[in-house]
Each structure stands twice: as C-alpha cells, then as structure tokens.
What we know:
The structure is a homodimer. By secondary structure, the first copy, chain A, is α/β, with parallel strands linked by helices. Chain A has 17 helices and seven strands. The radius of gyration of chain A is 27 Å and the shape is globular. Chains A and B meet through α5, α9, α11, α15 and α16 of A and α5, α9, α11, α15 and α16 of B.
Amino acid sequence: MSKKNKHTSALSEQKGVSDPEMTNISSIKNIRNKRRSQPSAEDLISGILKGDVTALSRSITLIESTSSTHLEKANAIIKGCLPYANKSIRIGITGVPGVGKSTFIEAFGNHLTQLNKKVAVLAVDPSSSLTKGSILGDKTRMETLVKNTNAFIRPSASGDSLGGVARKTRETIILCEAAGFDTIIIETVGVGQSETAVHSMVDFFLLLKLAGAGDELQGIKRGIIEMADTIAINKADGDNLKQAKLAKVEFNRALHLYPNKDSNWQPKVTLCSALENEGIDAIWELILAYVNTTSTNGYFENKRQEQNKFWLLQTIEERLKSDFFKQAKIKEALKKQIVLIEAGKTTPFAAADYLLSLS
Amino acid sequence: MSKKNKHTSALSEQKGVSDPEMTNISSIKNIRNKRRSQPSAEDLISGILKGDVTALSRSITLIESTSSTHLEKANAIIKGCLPYANKSIRIGITGVPGVGKSTFIEAFGNHLTQLNKKVAVLAVDPSSSLTKGSILGDKTRMETLVKNTNAFIRPSASGDSLGGVARKTRETIILCEAAGFDTIIIETVGVGQSETAVHSMVDFFLLLKLAGAGDELQGIKRGIIEMADTIAINKADGDNLKQAKLAKVEFNRALHLYPNKDSNWQPKVTLCSALENEGIDAIWELILAYVNTTSTNGYFENKRQEQNKFWLLQTIEERLKSDFFKQAKIKEALKKQIVLIEAGKTTPFAAADYLLSLS
C-alpha cells in the first residue's frame, strides 16, 4: 500500500533527479502577477488621484467586497481619497421602467463630456441583489457613453439591504470625486425606498416622467414628486409632443400645491426627448441655476452636511438592530415571546422589555 | 442659646406632660385613608374585572406614571387583565381639526350605548405633551357622553415620544377591555405620525372629511386615505349636502385607484351629519359588515397578531436607539465625530463604526 513497501531495497532506487533551482522562474512570475493584481492601498490611492480608471474600478471592487481584509483596505483608500472628494455636482435620476432612463443618461452624459465635464454614472438598485440583475448591468444600453473616455459607468453594487447598497454607493462617490469626476449621476429605479436613499446622497434630484402614464398618484403617495427639483417629461417628440405639453401644465399645477422648499428653489417642469437629443441642454442649465441659487443661499453645503448626519444616524440604527437580532439567544427568545404574545399571555411591550434585558 | 443653658437647675423643671397614647386615632385614620387611596394590584384587577370605573381610572394613572414603583404595579395589573382583554372592536377615528370629531364621537358613542354597547374613548395626541393640552382634555365638548354611565372617556396620555404615548394607549386598551368595554374608540388628530400609530392598534380606521376642504393631497401624501376602511364626509347637512354628495363621488373615484386591500374589504365612502345625528347608524352598520367580512376570512385575528409583532419590534428598536444615544461617552464622541465629518476628515460610515465600537 505505502511507498515504503514498494521500494524496500536500496538497489531498486531510481536515478536521482536534480533538485529544482532555488529561484523558480514561473513562481516568481506568479507572485509578480499576484502583486500586480493586488496593489497596495497607497498604490490605489495614488492611481485614483491621477485619474486612473483601473485603480478606481479595483478600489470600488474592494468597497463592494464582503471580505474583512478587503474592508480594511477599502477603508484606507476612502480615508486617503476623502480630502480630494466633495468637489462635484451629484445628480439623482429616477423614473419608472420604460421612461427611458438609459437613453436619457446616455444623451445627458455625452452632452456633459462635450462641455469638458467628467461624468461618473452609478446606480442604486436594491432589487439587483435579489434578481442578480442590475439596472446598469447591461452596459450595451449606453453604447456610446461606455466608449466615452470622460465617462465612467459602474453597475449597482449588490447587497443584503438597501442600507448596505447605499453605503457602498456613497463611498464610491468619494472615490469617483477623488479621481476627478466632477459630475456624478446616480440612477435608481422606483423600487421600495431606493429613491429616498438616492435623494439623501445627491444635490439635485431629477424625476423622469412620461405624458399620460397615470402614475402621478404613486408619485405623490410615495413622496417622489415632493423630492424632485425638476420633473422632465421624456419622449416629448412626434405624436407625443401635444400630450407632453398638457402634462407639463398638470405637473406645474401639482407642484404648486406643495409648500416652498427649504432650498428656495421652485421645482421646474421641462420637456425633453433623449432619443432626439432635445431639451437635454436645458436640463443641464436648470441644474446649474439650481447650484447657483443654493450655493448662494448656503443650502447646497448645508444639505450635504445634513445628509452626512442622516447617514451617520441611519448606519448606527441599522447596526444596533442587526447586532441585537442576530444574537442566537435573542433569536430563540424572540420566537418564544411571539408564541406567548399570540396566546395572549404577554404584551408586545412586556416581551420587548424581557428581550432587551437578555442582551 | 441651647435649651441646656436655659434650664440648668432641676428646680426650674416644668410640669410633665403625659405621653401620647400608643394608638393615635388620627394616625390610624391617615394610614387607613392612605391604604384606601393606594389599593393593591390585586384589588385594582378585581375592581377592573367587576367593571369598576374608579379602579380602571386609577390603574390607567399608574400606566401613565413615570415612577418605577408605579410601573411595576402597572405591569402586574396589565398581566392580570390580559386573559380578559382582546374581546372588543377597536375603532380609530381621525380627521383634521374642524372636521367635527368631538361631535361625531359624542353622537356615535351615544348611538352605541343605546344598542347596549359599553364604549371607551381614548386618544393618541403626541402634541399634547408639548402644548400641555389634549384633544380630549376638554370633556365639556362631549357633554352628554361624559354623563353616559356606559361610556368611559380618557384624555390622551402625555409622553416624550409618540412611541411612549402609543404604548400607554395600547396598554390602556387592555384594561378597558378587561373592564367590559366592548367598543374602543381611539381618536387622533392629524399630527405627525399619530395616524400611523393609531392605525397600528385598531381593527377599523375611520377617516372623517369635509366636502371641499381641499386637503385630499395631504391625505394621499401621508398615506391616510390608503389606511381608511371608511371615509365619512361629515357636516353633510343643509347647504353642504350637495357639495358633500359630489365629494362622495370624488373620494370613491380616488379609492378605486388604490390596489385591493389584504382585508378583502373595499373601503366605503359615506355621508353623515353628527350635528343632526344623520348617517351615524349607517357607519356602525359598515363597521359590523367589516368585522363580519374580516372575521370570516381570518384577516381580523391575523391583523391583531401582526400589530402585536409590529409593536414588539418597534419597542425594541426605539429602546436600542435611546439606550445607545443616552450614554454620556456616546454623546460626547458623537459631537466630535460630527465635527470631523463636517471637516471632511471622516465619513459618516467610518464615524458610525467608531461610535458603535465604543459601546
């Protein structure tokens, strides 16, 4: 069975093979490749600051990783980039599927790069972690923007929770800004609370609409119309144009029912056709006017600080909850308390007091 | 100065006064009175179960107290009442100030007691703790119901937070039910999240509206119309009647835009005049129809269990937050981290991680 039994006699010893060289050339190659594929945090930071898109992409991958060693490295990179961040206009874009978001972002992004802007396009799509899809996954939907050297497109990070996805996107913004991208576009699709999350990380919120789509009630109910700094009615071309003009009047009337915003900015309604590249420049002009108004009255900077505080508290609250409920003893006791509540033997409040006393 | 100096000689000793009797009659009276005013938890429970309104009122006062000894006693009373609770219809009533809530509740309550119902009227009004007022404080607004022996009216508990007020109201419901009240009415005024809190503790949610008040957008925005099981257009009398009928058509149209409810109950719109006692009986018939539908399809019981779970989790989350943020070291470190965030020296996420590591 063992080799020992096979070669008991010294006579049967086979011809010796010379030892391998101490310095194995292919090993060295492997290590070199490995080092090249895992640059240090310092290397990545200096790459990002030079505007190197490969360093940026690799760093974002570290941010999106769930490994704890990656996390440490990602945090070092974010810290290194932080002093160079913050110098951009962050624009949120939302709209129901079919409104033409991809076509719009492509036309809008190309318009901006023609104005010598550097544009990063990110996405917050909490559904992508479930469906394994991503609203920006299919880059072919933005054919020309993908090839544009002044544009950087990154699909949505996946994650267990909207909070997790949002954190990764927020941190990615910092890296993109440090890499010199001066216009950050964050796309989201109308799923769950994703608009609220995006609204909490951008300076300007653009709502894309279609004429006569009849989803106004949804928009009002979910507070999306209230969040919009501008409503752009897309596909305002050909036979649609007349209806789009009517919709503009309607939305203007709806917007006037809301109280004035703290920004002192009166939300605008505008028409555009991403397909025919109409009205795209006007939207950019509106954004510049917004930045001008809110920078002058201090709202722009103030909002960013409020957003920071929001994310600070939000992150703490989420972690407090998940740290509490993930404890094995709490999981078990929770089940038992729910049974007692259902049997009318305890109240939700007494059960809560008891569970909190266990921790 | 001292007495010693004044009476140095035994000769100056004054005539002795006989010792007081060992059993001081007035003391005994005091102790007896005190005992009478502080009955034991057992006494209060048996009083409540007999339907004694004084025992009920005293117990609710214990629930509302912030003293920890009262809290312990209150918890014992709730536990004792729990097996006898749950047997009522819990009705939430909301509407903006001026809609005629008090007049409506008075007419509705009197109608129910004529049907041999026992009616408890509670309130959730988180604003009352700030203004020191209470929406039910002015009992004179319900003159006849106050005198009705089959009705029990209790003003809103005060509290630091909506969660605190809601908890006290939820626990008060248990006591009222144990005392034999079979219809619990919970009034709230359209302030902050109070409607959502009330919706989470009742079986049936009634929204009072006025014709042409123009607050539909607010109702839709804040999700109140969506919560309503019935919308009653009040003050549908005299010159208002025509407009009220038009409003009924409008609200019916609006309600049809919402998806079907899990309860399988299609929300109704009805007209009433609390002042002229018109349409009050029809609302009670609607509530009975609702209870019948939802008891048959299991939704009624299921909703109560879901509400219990909601309050369990809600209470835990609130306590986790308040326990964390009330720590002196966290308060101090939080301030410092916010300064660092504002200076762009850390991110909200890194600051959150740091603060959580301190706890």
